[in-house]
Amino acid sequence: MFKIVPQLTAWWPVTVLEPDNDNPGTLKEFTFEAEFVIRGREEMKPYHQERDALMRQLPTADDILKDRAAAATKADKVGAKLEAHDQKMFHLMVKNWRGVFDEKDNPMPFTADAFNMALNQERIRAGLNKAYDEATSNDKARVGNSRA
């Protein structure tokens, strides 16, 4: 039965690629699961508008030609604001995880600090973004495959 719920959540596999030290020049895949919060368009609209406004503040090619140092300073300031915005967005979209372990192979509980540590790794961000896109996609081919 299809239900409309106030807040939809979904567990979804997240694939992270890392260099394979045993096979130089190759990558190996690791997978964990994230519990995503699937938010509605209206709820997300202000966040998208905020990010768009920040992107428009980045220096243009003309700004760089006029004053490279000032443009670099402006880019750094706007970049810091974009990073804070993106960090906030990750915390809005991920509620929990499972299958994540520390260096001693102990399960790592999902906490704000642990998640921030993970978000410091670009490969984890990339995996989370891809998984969230998959979870919210209306890709009919994938829907058919998920029933197998």
Can you describe this structure?
The protein is of the alpha+beta class and 148 residues long. It has one domain (8-138). The protein has six helices and three strands; from the N terminus they run ββαααβααα. The protein has helices at 41-57, 61-66, 68-93, 112-119, 122-136, 140-145, and strands at residues 8-19, 27-38, 94-98. Strands 1-2-3 form a three-stranded antiparallel beta sheet. The two termini are 19 Å apart.
Keywords for this entry:
globular, single chain, 3-stranded antiparallel β-sheet, 148 residues, alpha+beta
What proportion of the residues is helical, as a percent range? 40-55%
Looking across the biggest beta sheet, what order are the strands in?
A: 1-2-3
- Rounded mean pLDDT is 92
Which structural class do the helices and strands define? alpha+beta
Approximate shape = globular
Order of helices and strands: EEHHHEHHH
Query: Could you describe the largest sheet, including whether it forms a barrel?
Result: 3 strands, antiparallel
The proportion of residues in beta strands is: 15-25%
